[in-house]
Amino acid sequence: MPGTQTAPLASEIFIVAWRTPSGYTFGMKTAISIPDELFESAERLIAKLKVSRSRLYCRAIAEFVARHDEDVVTQQMDQALREMEAPYEEFSKEASRQVLRREEW
Predict the structure, then answer these.
(1) pLDDT in tens, 22-51
(2) Of the candidates 7, 65, 12, which has an alpha carbon nearest to the alpha carbon of residue 35?
């Protein structure tokens, strides 16, 4: 109903702060709503990892963004390929040389 307010879910996290030297943290503050089950899972993980709620959510968002940022994904794949190729690069070059030496031109 318009104008009717419902009680907030346990998972509605409202963080209100401002950028001042007296605060314990700096950066953008936001409010999010998530399903209760996800919130409870996150709370258990926070306790297990012994990190703040802000730290957990920040790490989760950073990981999600990195996984979906095409440039980051491409860079990570390129790095993985370089690491896999490094030990075999000299072998591949020498094998190619030997094959080319045996072929008639």
Answers:
(1) 455 567 778 889 999 999 999 999 999 999
(2) 12
In whole angstroms, what separates CA 92 from the centre of its chain? 35
* % helix, strand, coil for the chain, step of 5: 60, 5, 35
For residue 101, the model assigns a pLDDT of 83
Other Cβ atoms within 10 Å of 43 Cβ, number? 14
CA dist 88 → 2, 75, 85 (Å): 67, 20, 5
Residue with tokens 């095409």: 70
Supply angle C-alpha 35, 36, 40, rounded to 5.
Answer: 120
